[in-house]
Each structure stands twice: as structure tokens, then as C-alpha cells.
Amino acid sequence: MEYKQLGNHYVMRVDPGEEILEQIQTLCRMENIHVGSAVGLGAANKAVVGLFDTINKVYKKKELTGPMEITSLVGNISTKDGETYLHFHVNLCDEEMNISGGHMNACYVSATAEITVTKLDGTIERRMDEEIGLNLYRV
Question: CA 54 to CA 29: how far, in whole Å?
């Protein structure tokens, strides 16, 4: 991963074999980013996506493999218990031009990923909402 800071934006390139969330987490640690957002695109060959089951309050996960375009990657950065907390979604296009996507648990780059992280001032903490079953913003 390489990146360049432009004001409160960080333009980053994630390289083949690297996992995107790990690289964003590294950037956040190196640049002291506690709250922000990110957008990106690129190419992947393995991803794990999920869907939150609101009845059973668990994520259902699916692993996707093969050549894929990352047609949309969006997410936010906050903290939970003082630690960086990433919440990302991804859409992936396969060779048949079918789109799959959901909550991003992992996404491995095959060629490149180009991501822009925007750092915001302040902090946004999350806490578990037992009724919903998710870590929600405390705003």
C-alpha cells in the first residue's frame, strides 16, 4: 500500500495480494484517523461479503472468488471502545457482469484498488445496541 495526503484526504493504492480493510486500518493507525469516510474501486480475486439477518441478529457470510471488478466500495471510520472501527460495503462484478455485494468482511486485491479516505475532525464512538444487534453510532 502506498498513499499520499492531500489536505484532509488520503489517496491510497492497495497492491495485489493485500487485503483492503487491513490496509485502511494501517492507514488510520499511521495517520491518527478516528473518524472519516472512504470510497474506492479496483480489482479483486477473493472477497467475503455479508448480510445482516435482522431476525436472528447475525451476519450471513459468503465467500466470492475469481476475477472481479470492485465497482463500488464505500465505508465509514469511527471508534468502538477507543479502537478504530471500520464499516464498509462493496459491490463486485464477476466475468458474467453479475453484481454481488454486501457488508465487506474482507476483500483481496488482484491488480489494484484506488481508495480515497477523508479524515474528519473529532470522534464518533459506537456502542452495541442489544435490541437491534449492531454497533451503532453514538451521536
Answer: 32
Q: Which three cell numbers stand for residue 107?
A: 476483500
> Strand 125-129 and strand 134-138: pairing?
antiparallel
pLDDT digits (tens, 9 = 90+) for 58-103: 999 999 999 999 999 999 999 999 999 999 999 999 999 999 999 9
| Whole-number pLDDT of residue 123 | 92
Cell of 100: 454481488
Contact present, 33 and 27 (Cβ < 8 Å): yes
* Amino acid in position 32: N
Which residue in the block uniquely carries the three cell numbers 484517523?
33
Asked whether 109 and 20 are in contact (CB, 8 A), the reply is: yes
Q: What are the residues whose beta carbons fall under 8 Å from the beta carbon of 139, sequence distance 6 or more?
A: 124
32-53: pLDDT as tens digits: 999 999 999 999 999 999 999 9
The radius of gyration computed from the CA coordinates of the chain, to the nearest angstrom, equals: 15
Assigned C-alpha cell, 111: 491488480
